[in-house]
Task: structure prediction
Amino acid sequence: MYKKGHASAHGLQLKKQFGQHFLRDQSVVDAMLAGVSLNAQSSIMEIGCGDGFLTKDLQQQPHARVRIFEIDPEWAEYVATTYPHERMEIVQQDILTIDFETLREHAPWTLLANLPYQITFPLFTKIQEHRDLFGESVVMIQEEVAQKFVATSGRTYSFVSVYFQHYFEFKLLKKVPPTSFVPAPRVTSRLLWFKPRAQLDVIEQEEKFWKLLKVCFHQPRRTIKNNLMQLQMDLSAIPAELLVLRAQQMTKEQFLQLWLLINTEPLITCNHKLFCNRLD
Result:
């Protein structure tokens, strides 16, 4: 949301549909850059350059290239004109619509960006699908969402937590108040460090495992037994100590234990929309 009196910057209109909140706190940029290691071979990616507050500092870091994805043509032109650089490329395109294979030539990429809040989950899903193209990175996202990424139990712990922690390491960095932006958002932000995991746990029939996990978290205050009863399956092989837990109390290892038991038992008729009788 925008506060009155901040509808434009540098003579250009700010566009709410693009989630444009421009950073104005240099200490946040410094913390972001301190979170990664850059050298003369680094490929740096920025998403949503805005008026170039971060971009100008990226240009001063050791790097081979800086590639910016900016959906707004006016700000893309502004940054290209105001901060020209021989190793900077601005791509005027929605990051969610690009062919990520075009990034492979210069991978791995270090993503450093103040992300529009509304693209956080879709973007991380894209990065997960192409995680071999990325190295350690730092992004700024909504504080509440950052807590979901790192949670291991409790109310913020969800399917999102288990799913993305399977693929990435995460670390919370600097908390960023609304006053660090123009216009100020109504929520607190957070710098989030992440890096694709070098090795992943092997999960048999992984796609079905994630479907099961969604069912477990569908009503997180209900016990696993109550959530699984909607699948009309025989739960007799599952230890009672697992069935009495809620999803927000379970570790990934416990979910894998549950999956091993379920995946080796034949399932009876199920009407749940995510499943058929074989969890297809």
